[in-house]
Amino acid sequence: MAKFPYGLTADDLLKMYRLILFGRRYGESVDRWYKAGRLPQLPYISMGQEAVGVGACYGLRADDWVLPSLRTNEAYWTRGVTVLEQFHGMMGNAHSITGGRETSNHAAYPDRGILVGTGLIASQIPVAVGAAIALKRKGKGDVIVCFFGDGGSNRGDFHEALNLASMLKAPVVFVCENNGYGFTAPASEVVTAKDVADRAMSYAMPGKTVDGQDVLAVYGAAQEAVKRARQGEGPTLLECKTHRYLPHCPSVEEERPPEVLHKMRQRDPLVILGDRLQREGLLSQATIQSMEQEIRQELEDSLEQAEHGPIPEPAEVFHNLYCEPTTAMGL
Amino acid sequence: MRVLAGNQILREALAQEMERDQRVWLLGEDIGVLGGIYKVTEGLLQRFGRDRVTDMPISESGFVGMAAGAAMLGLRPVVELMFADLFPVCMDQIVNTAAKTRFVTNGLLHVPMVIRTPTISNVTAYQSQTFEAWLAHVPGLKVVMPSKPQDLGGLLLASIRDPDPVIFLENRFVYDMMGEVPDVIEPIPLGQARICREGTDVTLVAWGANMVQMAEQVADQAAEDGVSVEVIDPRTLVPFDLRAIVQSVCKTGRLVVLHEAVRRCGFGAEIVASIADSEAFSKLRAPMIRVANPGVPVPFSRALHKYALPAAEDLMAAIYRVMKRVMPKAMPKTTVKQQVELVASRPSGYLRR
């Protein structure tokens, strides 16, 4: 029986593999279906970065929280959200968790510990610190993991939030998904720190850079930061170097040169974990085939079901704006 | 009943609610050791400790966003912004996070937080702005602007207990006004106007402690000339007690709105438009008039205040205009600046002008 790091079992690794595989097939599918006009919501596809969301969320407890960025689709899958739920969101259906009010990438699932981020890059970071303070008051050792990108690390809210978190010893793990580009702006040009993790030094917290393509590296570093947060030692900034295979979103032209795109695929999170599992004899071609089949079926069935999902009643727009009902004339 | 100054009343209300509800968390710049620049939170750090009264670094966007996140997971943050001109710094967190969370989560999360802040009124271009119209424009926010010291405590309690984000604007002159408070402060429901003076000829709607005081003084003076002015302080702009204004205008047939903020797109425009949409429109006997800042930054030099700040003589002129009467020559020359000096005879805080 092979030994795996961080106390993980073979079963854990297979689950992680399936989550990454699921993320990959989800990304490919929504890209295709959006372009074919079957999904109305512009998707922010995380292909290439799947290991970050999986690795950082996998070891969390049910009472912990995550605050995904625009692109952390894997946080949803790892926390147990189904693709049907998210497709309802992408359709704007009545059955979506937001009741058709927001897109799937700004969907909160409080019952699964997922908080909502706004559409404004990095604005969620101070919100996560506040949530961490509320968790700290409860005194049960719960933590929150907050995701953002390299671009977000240039926003004032990132810096203010890290300072506040350090000052208040907030139980939060800041996970920077550094995919090298903010929309089209290369991090090499617009992020002046060598590593985003270096920015932690200004805020007297540990900053660590890991290979975001290796889910076990992400998991190990995240668990270390989570442990620190649970013990009341405060926040950590964890930078995961990763790659975004597709443009910012499908409506944007690919600006990056083909050789760059080719090179980034040489370190693929699915291949890295898959090779390891195959070397250990834990993952047969048959297992992969069966996972692929299940995933394809779930994606297709869910899309079809969401396509026929009920749309919201127009008057629903007046509900849940305030605690009181509102009308067309306002509150 | 006790008679206390406005800032003491606010402090009493905060302390009372902090005793009752352990979730209440005060945060803001210099609210702990200093007790706030207007001493609203004086002594609360010593009484409740740093976990409940927390001094913040200069990070308004950061700590407003942080308060919103804490509110989502069950705390009741009460933020003090040092002064209202800081709203633009943290507007993203107010507009996009606090105001929208209940809506975008379909009610699964909500943001029970309060942002209290003084509106300083008449000092400089960067410390005198009143942004209630910006805030009232945002779906999801409630906007409270108490003007009478006796309303401060009850409206603050209602704001803290409200499940939605509430902006609580304290015109700084209210801190020095004396008002009666009961031994145990009771919440005053949001959305109920106060009729400050009953009258039959003109409806005068005003908010902000200095403006309401000026409105009352001008109403008293007009009464001596036989003009009966009904002064209404809406107390909250969202929710807004439109019915009280409509009923009054139906009775008087005349409306003057007084506010300190810029007239263009000010909340007065909303009130005038709402009256135009209502059954009161057909009762109007004169055009509706707004008396407000004409659309200039508030300058430092007092010599420049004459046209920048709404003055009692402008208000009186508006009342005579809607009455279609000629204003007697012996009417007041008092400006709002002089008016506020009357109430600021016991100035608290560090801005003593």
What does this 3D model show about the protein?
- The complex is a heterodimer of chains A (331) and B (353).
- Chain A has 331 residues and is of the alpha/beta class.
- Chain A has a single domain (5-318), classed as Thiamin diphosphate (ThDP)-binding fold, Pyr/PP domains (Rossmann fold).
- Chain A has helices at residues 10-35, 50-57, 73-78, 83-91, 124-138, 156-168, 187-190, 215-230, 258-264, 269-279, 285-307; strands at residues 65-67, 144-149, 172-178, 181-182, 185-186, 207-211, 236-241.
- Chain A has a five-stranded parallel beta sheet, with helices on both faces.
- In chain A, helix 8 (215-230) links the parallel strand 6 and strand 7.
- In chain A, helix 1 packs across helix 2 (50-57) and helix 5 packs parallel to helix 6 (156-168).
- Chain A is globular and about 55 Å long.
- The mean pLDDT of chain A is 96.
- In chain B, strand 10 (202-206), helix 8 and strand 11 (229-233) form a beta-alpha-beta unit.
- Chain B is built from 13 helices and 14 strands.
- Chain B folds into two domains: 2-181, 3-Layer(aba) Sandwich (Rossmann fold); 194-343, Rossmann fold.
- Chain B has 353 residues and is an alpha/beta fold.
- In chain B, the strands form three sheets. Chain B has a seven-stranded mixed beta sheet with strand order 3-2-4-5-7-6-12, with helices on both faces.
- Chain B has helices spanning 6-20, 44-48, 60-72, 87-98, 101-104, 132-136, 149-161, 209-224, 242-252, 267-276, 305-308, 312-322, 336-343, and strands spanning 2-5, 24-28, 53-55, 76-80, 114-119, 142-144, 166-171, 178-181, 194-197, 202-206, 229-233, 236-238, 255-262, 289-293.
- Chain B is globular.
- At the A-B interface, helix 5 and helix 6 of A face helix 3, helix 4 and helix 5 of B.
Keywords:
heterodimer, A: 331 residues, alpha/beta, Rossmann fold, 5-stranded parallel sheet, 7 strands, 42% helix, globular, B: 353 residues, 7-stranded mixed sheet, 5-stranded mixed sheet, 14 strands
